[in-house]
Specification:
By secondary structure, the chain is of the alpha/beta class. It is about 35% helix and about 15% strand. It folds into 3 domains: about 30-195, Thiamin diphosphate (ThDP)-binding fold, Pyr/PP domains (Rossmann fold), CATH 3.40.50; about 215-380, Rossmann fold, CATH 3.40.50.1220; about 395-570, Thiamin diphosphate (ThDP)-binding fold, Pyr/PP domains (Rossmann fold, 3-Layer(aba) Sandwich), CATH 3.40.50.970. The chain contains 23 helices and 22 strands. The strands form 5 sheets. It has a 6-stranded parallel beta sheet with strand order 3-2-4-5-7-6. Strand 15, helix 17 and strand 16 form a beta-alpha-beta unit.
Length: about 600
Amino acid sequence: MEHVHANSGASTTTASQIGQQEPEGENWITGSEALLRCLLAEDVDCVFGYPGGNALYIYDAMTGNPAFKHLLTRHEQGAVHAADGYARSTGKTGVCIATSGPGATNLVTGIATAYMDSVPLVVITANVPTNVMGTDAFQEADIVSMTMPITKHGYLVRDVRDLPRIVREAFHLAGSGRKGPVLIDIPKDVSNHRMLFQPEEAELRLRGYRAAPEIEPAEIDELLAAIAESERPVIIAGGGIVYANAAPEMMAFAERTRIPVATTLLGLGGFASSHELWLGMPGHHGAYAANKAIQNADLLISIGSRFDDRVTMKLDGFAPKAKRIAHIDIDPAEIGKNVRTDIACIGDIKDVLGYALQIAKPSQRDGAWLRELQRYKADYPLRYQDSETELKPQFVIEMIHETTKGEAIVTTDVGQHQMWAAQFYKFNHPRSLITSGGMGTMGFGFPSAIGAQLGNPDRLVVSINGDGGMQMCAQEMAVCAVHNIPVKIVVINNQVLGMVKQQQELMYERRYSQIDLAGSPNFVKLAEAYGIKGLSASTKAEARRAWQEALDTNAPVLVEFKVPMNENVYPMVLGGTTLDQMIMGDFED
């Protein structure tokens, strides 16, 4: 992701320091008060955070600003994941705040999670006063340097007068181009210095930063010509479709050209799962039809997908029959990074597809390719060995889909349950799946649901977690209880680190090591300890009753589904093998 550089190192001065009388009036305010005004000017609905000594001037300013909304999480990681879930589900920029030292460093995993998945965040950290910086002062950490590889840009505010400009630039950088997190580090003394507040209104001009390159019609014309010549084209649609708000254009383009579509994990919902052209998710745990389509395609078109290793698997055997590979992306750095690119269309996806739709002609192919892929879908659907004596996790996901009619916002943690949710919950709307893709962050699922619920108060939000990931941020149940945030918390409890177990079973000759989670708490009692209704189920009948009770409760509810330990996620492509070398599990031919 592109980094930009700006000079934020001017010395700090105030009127009192240079012997002048301080002005008076409502616009002569502290840096902390200016920060809050700037955030409100950016239409920030809520900030997620956790206070500490060097952030106290900022938190003190909140007491005098009733318009400013702040949600106190129980851990800084909960704050950054909640801001992330808010951003992914709304399309707006999420904001979180933490104090210096450990408060700031506790945000790092969440910042990296957002960076890998191109999520717009403005992360605000406090720091020690400027006069002790570099002395290893109490709770001092150079968070700007630490996060440089995982942010679009980082600011250290040394002059309070720069603060309005910096906040405005930060939101512009985070929410434009290839989106991502931007950090603002504010020393304690700067947050208390006074300034004449004059909001930035001039046009933003950041030297060296281009939010989105202008589209090149010739590139798109070349792509359309290749489509017209192809017999077996396939689209891989990624998270860029969702982030660009380009789902309508994606649908229209696929229907016009009659090209089948596989959606990556982050692309789920960007193209409706109910559509006849949808093949499923490709890759490591992808659908049979999606993987076979990629391996047999003569033209492969990536739209907003970066060809990550969980999609491509063994690179030198990826899409071997593709005569040409096209890539549409807003970030030129992604073109050719992992997979050869014959046709590059650089620019905002919404603009690229908008232009393409003006001139694209209806497909003239005879339909044989689509019929072949439909046979794959019919002969090798996603399926599992159901049971009347055990509660299967796939059944739980199907039940959640059926009862919510696919209209919920679903957040997941990371592991087997994440893949089952991707496979068996059918996403028909963008921004309806909130999950950690590139970083694969355990502990993400539940706090991200809190942010999604606050950003979408009229939507049903379901947080699907494993028993491992749930324990990493379980303390955030206190936030749901105190504020009556009605997230439905699902725990798929198999008493084991399931995805690690599956890999040890299939790739390490069943040498199981450090995966036993049998000492986990009673999740029902844990929920009740936080003041949340807790329910449990271990049969289909119990599952239906408990889940319906959760849906009928206008409050947060945790439902634990006890599932067998030995259930695996299939299909699966092992590392070092190609997409057409799928293990089908119980349905192996």
